[in-house]
Amino acid sequence: AAFDTDEPAFLVKTGPYRFVRHPFYISYIVFWVGSSLGGNSLILWFVCLVLIGSYVVAALSEEQKFKNSPLAADYSHYSKRTGFLFPKLPVLLTEDQPESRPRP
Q1: Is 52 exposed, middle or buried (0-12, 13-18, 19+ CB in 10 A)?
Q2: How does pLDDT run along the chain (104 residues), one tens digit per residue?
Q3: Residues 2, 63, 9, 82, Cα dihedral to 10°
């Protein structure tokens, strides 16, 4: 849960976490941006910006918890491969590609 103070016990690196470290916050951001575009209201855009700010703060807080946990080394390696809120394009293009084999 956002802003929870517990120490991380495991690291998920599959599914959407394979590409970004905070996919739930991305889904919330997409929802609020879409709602703001659809509603075309200054109030909605203000709410959207406030919520995006709170999601980024929550994600940074979670990052810090991992950096201070026994999973710090694994999380550091994971962070280099995956994006914070957006996928890292070079990783998407090169990861899990089958090795090219010479044709006989």
Answers
A1: middle
A2: 566 677 888 999 999 999 999 999 999 999 999 999 999 899 999 999 999 999 999 999 999 999 999 999 999 999 999 999 989 876 555 655 444 444 44
A3: 110
At residue 73, the 3 state secondary structure works out as: helix
- For residues 72 and 66, is the Cβ–Cβ distance under 8 A? yes
Please state the φ and ψ torsions of residue 99, each to the nearest 5 degrees: -65, 140
Which secondary structure element, helix H or strand E, spans residue 26, and what is its range? helix 23-39
